Amino acid sequence: MRMAAYIEEDLKARIHAGSGLPAKLTLETLSRQYGVSFSPVRAAVVRLIRGRWLRKRENGRLEVNPDPPRGAPVRRGVEAPADRERLLATDVLRRSLNGEAAYLREEAAAARYGIGRTVVRQVFGRLVGNGLLEHVPRKGWRVRPLRAEELDAYLEVRETLELKALELARPRLARADLLRMLAANETGLDNDLHRYLLEKSQNRYLRDFFDRHGAYFTTLFDTLSTGAIREMAAQHRRVLQALLRRDWTGARQALSRHIRSQRPVVRRMMRRLAALPVEKWPPPQRL
User: Fold this and answer.
1) Which end of the chain has less neighbouring CB within 10 Å, N or C?
2) How, if at all, do strands 54-56 and 103-104 pair?
């Protein structure tokens, strides 16, 4: 279903229910409500006026028709189209993994994905925070390309610093916390372990490195396949089990293997995603 058709059906259901409408019915408020540009909202409003669900007053303002069509079908629970914000973010991620250092224009992105420029700017701002984009003054938004040597350099530094965090955190590890994270990795992938070790290290310089440089790679790992998720969850369990036994040597070895194993995981992911159209990519979750 196209966005204009979705907005039309959703507004019909809201009008029929008598709730869920903005206080002022304008193209601007509806555009904000649905997170899209004016174009699909305008198309939906035109059809709703023709169908006598809405009407225009003499001053041009919109209002709900007090005498809507009787017996007209209303589709409740209409599923929204694909999340266009996430498609935009995924497209940026695809370009990054393909090594493109292209500049992106807000107008072109808004037109392609049928969302407003304000929404595009907000998404781009979040992607700058995640390290996927760079904002270049007077030039715009540039995709940050991922290069294999950059990944290798990051993982090498990450291994050194996380092992140091584990060493510093040892006196402050709580058994209840370790058991909770172990249980979470039995049913899926839970990444709390890494942040937990950093927090318990009580070293702000370690935390600063991961806050500054880790967001980009965290976003990449959000696209992992099911098999890779199982593999990484099993590695987390081995680290946690060693920590519960207070086997510090075993925990260091398991954590080191876990971090090093991410090189081939990311490369497999890159090959797999390169063969898919952007619509079929698993979207990054932390926008």
Assistant:
1) N
2) unpaired
Kind of pairing, strands 62-64 and 54-56?
antiparallel
**Of 21, 8, 5, whose CA–CA distance to 53 is shortest?**
8
Instruction: Say if CB 14 and CB 20 are below 8 A apart.
Output: yes
User: Does residue 4 carry a pLDDT above 90?
Assistant: no
Distances (CA, A) of 135 to 123, 144, 179, 286: 12, 10, 42, 19
Tell me if 208 is assigned to some domain. yes
The pLDDT tens digits for 237-277 are: 999 999 999 999 999 999 999 999 888 877 776 666 666 66
* Rounded Cα gap, residues 5 and 44, in angstroms: 6
CA distance 120 to 130: 15
C-alpha 111/C-alpha 3 separation (Å) is 13
Residues 226 and 126 in one domain: no
Are the C-beta atoms of residues 132 and 103 closer than 8 Å to each other?
Answer: no
Taking only Cα atoms into account, the Rg of the chain, rounded to an integer number of angstroms, comes to: 24
* Entry pTM: 0.57
* Torsion sign across C-alpha atoms 149, 151, 152, 153: positive
CB-based contact 268:228 (threshold 8 Å): yes
Give the pair of three-digit tokens for residue 126. 């979040």
- 42 inside domain: yes
